[in-house]
Amino acid sequence: MELFGFDLDYVAFMILFCIGLHMLVVKSNLLKKLLGLNVMETAVFAFIITSGMVDSGDPPILVAGTNPPFANPIPQAMVLTGIVVAVSVTAVALALIVQIHAHYGTIEVSELKERP
Amino acid sequence: MSAAFDVVLLVFLIATAITVARSQDLIAAVVKFGVYSLVMCLVWQHRGAPDVAITEAAVGAGVTSVLFLLAIARTERAEKR
Amino acid sequence: MRGLGLALVLVAAFTIVLGIGGLPPRLDPEGPVHTHVGARYAERGLEETGLRNLVAAVLLVYRGFDTFLEVVVIFTALVAVLALPSGVIGGTSWREPDAETSEPDAETSESGDRRAAAVVDRPDTGVPVSNVVGFVVRLLAPFIAVFAAALLYRGHVTPGGGFQAAAIFGALFIALGLVLGRAKADRLVPRGVRPYLQAMGPLAFALVGLLGWRLTGAFLGYPSEASAYVLREAMVVAVEVGIAVGGAVILARLFQALEGR
Q1: What are C222-256's pLDDT values in tens digits?
Q2: How many domains are there within chain C?
Q3: Fewest beta carbons less than 10 Å away: which of A35, A105, B63, C199?
Q4: Which is higher by pLDDT, A56 or B80?
């Protein structure tokens, strides 16, 4: 499906990426920034997966009932590892945010800038 | 039918992402992010990537949301403008 | 700041639109995505690896190094979270700065009040779990565990595998930890074996890699003869079990660390 000559899926994921980027850049709350980063990550994963799919293709699992052409397995394997790394990054960032709150009593960047 | 389903999913994805960005209550934002992840998992299942969809359903909608909720419980719930 | 952010986003959007305009058409079976190494994997993946799930084949055999180091990344994330000063992360929050300096006896009445306030602050004792949630989680827990185990065991034949099982086992641990409370949830995994379980992903990968080195002369090599089918499958399942158990325990431990333990 196309939209003004562009692939509809790609356009949708571009919009999602930009929403996430906007959250990451503009929001002052650190947790909100991290949510924006997660939205961005998911959009990129979706882009990678979509690029590897075939028209009316089956998932890349060679059992009875699936026929070629198969979707490309490499993007899926990359994204699978990427998702798990993303949750690790989120966990580390959240632990740091909790520490920041314990030290400064706020997680708003605008207020953190005024702290000594 | 399939194309219409795709369009509905994508529009819903963008709408949930915007509501995540707009909600001032962080717990509401995290719950909406869980919805976003689940819809994304449907999209991936539809794209022939069941492996990734399973992982996203458990990690994106489950574990990430719980970790966020814990962090909110130990910091602040409201986002100041 | 707001205008600057919007401008940045617009620039990024413009750049991405230019980029996706130049991409080859999607969905075309003859497109470059499907004609290079992807096609070879689809064509010969089964005979070369013996895995019917090509995603697992790429993860564990063709791109084994990537996955090995990726498991190390998760482990490093856990180490990073645990390396943060636990006195602060598990102690009182910034709202009671005098709680640390006061005498640590909760028996006296006036400091007992302050203690109670600090305890309510913590997530686990704040609100009791609803009966409905508790019942549903207890009811579903065995089924979730069986599902995750099936994903793990059949992962090289059907959709599923180590990472998926790790995610679901981890989510199960977290749900049980929320419902059962700390004391019971702690007993799910014995304290003594936890450090080994947390390192099990990298450990299993390294051991299987060394075994492959011994057998084939290449680190993470898998014997390719048809007669070694059982051994190869055992190696794959060992790696998957390592990823699943290690990943699940690490996810549960990250949850505990954020809870303040």
Answers
A1: 877 777 778 888 888 888 899 899 989 998 888 88
A2: 1
A3: A105
A4: B80
Domain total for chain B? 1
The verdict on a CB contact (< 8 Å) between A21 and C70 is no
All structural domains of chain A: 2-112 (1.10.287.3510)
Q: For each successive 10 residues of chain A (116 residues), what is the average pLDDT?
A: 73 92 91 94 92 73 73 86 89 91 87 82
Domain that holds residue B58: 2-74
Given a cut of 80, whether residue C142 has pLDDT beyond it is yes
Neighbour count for residue C188 (Cβ, 10 Å): 12
pLDDT per residue as tens digits for the range C95-130: 444 444 444 444 444 444 444 444 434 444 456 778
The answer to whether position C98 is within a domain reads: no
How many other C-beta atoms can be found within 10 angstroms of the C-beta atom of residue B3?
Answer: 9
Tell me the three state secondary structure of residue A48.
helix
Contact (CB<8Å) A54/C16: no
- The answer as to whether B79 is a domain residue is no
Residues 16-55 of B with CB under 8 A from C: 50-51, 54-55
DSSP string, C221-253: ----SGGGHHHHHHHHHHHHHHHHHHHHHHHHH
pLDDT one-digit tens code per residue, B25-38: 999 999 999 999 99
The CA-based angle C111-C116-C120, given to 5 degrees, is 150
Cβ separation B80–A28 shorter than 8 A: yes
**A44 class by beta-carbon count within 10 Å (0-12 exposed, 13-18 middle, 19+ buried):** middle
Domain of C204, in residue numbers = 55-87+129-259
Task: From chain C, pick out residues whose CB is under 8 angstroms from the CB of A94.
Answer: 258
Do the chains contact at C42 and A68, CB–CB below 8 Å? yes
Examine residue B20 and state whether it is found in any structural domain, yes or no. yes
Closest Cα in chain B, distance from residue A57 (Å): 7
ipTM score assigned to the predicted complex: 0.90
- Write the residue in C151, C178, C255 that is nearest to B54 by C-beta: C151
Whether A14 sits inside 8 A of C20 (CB atoms) is yes
Q: Which pTM does this prediction carry? A: 0.84
Q: Which residue has the tokens 């369009």?
A: B7
Is C93 part of a structural domain of the chain?
no
DSSP state, residue C24 = P
- Give the distance from residue A66's alpha carbon to the nearest chain B alpha carbon, in angstroms: 11
Please tell me the number of Cα atoms within 13 Å of C226 on its side-chain side. 2
Question: Is the Cβ of C85 closer than 8 Å to some Cβ of chain A?
Answer: yes
Nearest CA in chain C to B50: C159
- B67 within domain boundaries: yes
pLDDT at C86: 58
User: Would the pLDDT of C9 be above 70?
Assistant: yes
Q: Which residues of chain B have a CB within 8 Å of the CB of C122?
A: 73-74
